[in-house]
What we know:
Blueprint: H1 2-12, E1 16-20, E2 30-37, E3 43-48, E4 54-56, E5 77-80, H2 87-94, E6 102-108, E7 114-120, H3 127-130, H4 145-152, E8 168-171, H5 172-175, E9 180-183, E10 189-194, E11 205-206, E12 224-239, H6 241-245, E13 249-251, E14 257-259, E15 262-267, H7 269-279, E16 281-282, E17 285-286, E18 297-301, H8 308-323, E19 328-330, H9 337-347, E20 351-355, H10 357-361, E21 364-369, E22 376-379, H11 383-392
Parallel strand pairs: 7-8, 8-11, 18-19, 18-20
Antiparallel strand pairs: 1-2, 2-12, 3-4, 3-12, 5-10, 6-7, 9-10, 12-15, 13-14, 16-17, 20-21, 21-22
Amino acid sequence: MYEAYSRIFTRIGLKFRAVQADGGSIGGSASQEFHVLADSGEDAIAFSDADDYAANLEMAATIAPTAPRPAATEPLTKIPTPNARTIAELSAQLGVDPARCVKTLLVDGSNDDVVALVVRGDHELNAVKSQKLPGVANPLRMSSADRVRKATGTEPGFIGPIGFAGKIYVDYAAAHLADFVCGANEKDMHFRGVNWGRDLKDPQPADIRNAQRGDPSPTGRGTLQIARGIEVGHIFQLGQLYSEAMHASVLDEQGKASTMFMGCYGIGVTRVVAAAIEQNHDANGILWPEAIAPFQVVLVPINYQKSTRVQETADSLYEQFNAAGIDVLLDDRDARPGVKFADSELMGIPHRIVIGERGLAAGNLEYRHRSETESTEIPATDPVGYIRHKLNS
């Protein structure tokens, strides 16, 4: 199915990526989404600039730094930070880079307790990764203000890992910090010069943040780039998750009952149309990829209602293209040429042939591809052969 989807989207001419994805409530052993790259996409995807690694941002892995954690150089100091509830406010007040601060977020645990998740100040927590951690409630839920006060003695905005009695997970990047800033579990107060292993025990590191542009690729080759994508297809490997629950089996070659394997597959047909337009358009309208254009050729006769020669030629070509199995649209409206040209560009039909008295008198027709800005004169003797060659080239 992966290969079939790849062939389909390649033939359509889309720029796409197949990415690792979360199975969500459907579950299964593996899941892949197919995304068409577009700035208007609803999903963020991370991909390596050196190999074919790609994943939905919620699944993109980050890796632990390979260098040793820096040594402590500052003493632990408690400092007043009035009304500094956000990393931006704290950073501005102390003149400290957000990357040297940590955020401590309290979430509900799976045993009616509270779990602390610690990430670097310039990073964002990844909910999908975090809710899979042992002891964390799934789906992820931020703890209420009352539960935060009960667990830390303070309100959100000043929480820190020092003195927290519950389970703590620390992101790889945050676990690599030295001399960092964190909440002091006291209103309007923070600690500065905090160090793991000295001021609090060494952390339990985990991958719990969103990947960012420039992060090392988890494959070890290249760095990650971030792009927006429109999801147009999804593959789920369900394994025997549902068939076991439903006792769904078939008889194998030996006549023994065997639990079947299942998969779930889908392509969003209307999404493919929208994505194709998103990637193929200009100021004048759509530029349809050849494989999904509603028509392959548009015939635009000039003065169709007034010129018998133009009308007979246009009608004849229309029949010839149809007989050749080429999708053709005849614009026989009583409209000015400029209107017809603008509408054909707006609709994005790949090939346009203009039929006019002057051209016919010289034995020519006027051809233009939708992506081109200049027209070409072609012999009026075999326009079907000319277009067939264009379609096959």
